[in-house]
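$ fold --in a.seq
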Amino acid sequence: MRCAEVCFAIAFLAERCKPSGLPRNRDEFPEGSCPTVRFGNDFVLATSVTILTIPPISIEMLQSLLDEASGRWTGCNWRTAMGPQKLNLQGMRSSHAQILASATSGSESAAWDEAAAFLAIVESDAKKAESAARRAVALMQSGHQADAILEASKAVDLEAKHRVPVIWVAVRDAIQTLATSANTDCP
């Protein structure tokens, strides 16, 4: 956003809020006014302190988010304390846990078997989540917004089965924002 546009935004909002000047919060805007101004593809949010420019989400940005997130969650990448042995499975693959199950005996072998089964589920869900996110972006690119949101939500839900979702949330949120902005008739 250029300086002239920022100055216009400030003048526009100040004019709408006369005689008292800019309000301190959203509730103080005059009836029927809104603290959002659109300049081309930029939305400007005004507060008494700051003018923020929020760039529009584009399909290209969505693809970049997907590319950045891809491969970041492939298995258990958080600390664990599984079973009586309190096994920390962070960074371990199910195939490694299965080798340890075969190399040990008794309760230790059983613990590694359980760990291998758990890790296999996490790895499978990670693959399914990435596939769902890829489908979501492809659906968004082809104009199927509702289906894209559902697929992106599946990716987040699969991750949430195991931990607080951090990988696929940005992709889902970008799809929701892009779908909303495509369906909104902006001034």
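$ fold --in b.seq
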Amino acid sequence: MLARQSARNSVDAQALVSVTVFMVTKVIDAPPGGATTKAPTTVTVARMETDAGPQAPGELELVRAFVNTLDVEDGVEALAGPADLDAWARERGCPPPGAAAADLARVLELREALRSLLLAHHDGAAADVGALGVVDDAMSWGVVRPSLAAGGLTWRAAGHGVPGLVGRLMSAVSAAVVDGTWSRLKVCGNDTCRWAFYDHSRSRTGRWCSMKVCGNRAKQQKFKQALRD
């Protein structure tokens, strides 16, 4: 999982060049009066791209990290047992919840429900009703309560143990819904990836966890399809 996180945050310059080369050589290799060729050549083209980064602001980052405790593409589960949940909570600055096996199963159900909701943040898609129900139940299980502070309405977790951890997650979700950042938290549009990321784009149309990894894969697939067509 750490290797995949590193890959998403590094520049895959060679892969980016291969996509850009195709766009350039379509013009370079066109014979006079003829159709453009789709055969790539060894033109050296450098295109630098930067990502604003996948992390979410404030407490919403806890939600993003929680969803990413399962690396869908590599099949790596970070919460394989109750002790793993304790360790993860401790790493994130939360009190270890001391979960039982049944609690962990419920926590994992919540995680996948959140992943489903984040997928719906692309293109204004309809949220899965079942996932909404799981998250709604978690609001009660986590004992999330509104609190009036000097800066306005806030949300806080009132429980302890597993309900306390779930409540903190749901408090972050509630606050993000109110302040408008919730719709920016998404999962990668790559069906085999589904890594959670925060969309920093001004247009809110970000689709990939990283343009250098999954975004580039999509471009390469589109390129290969164009060659077949």
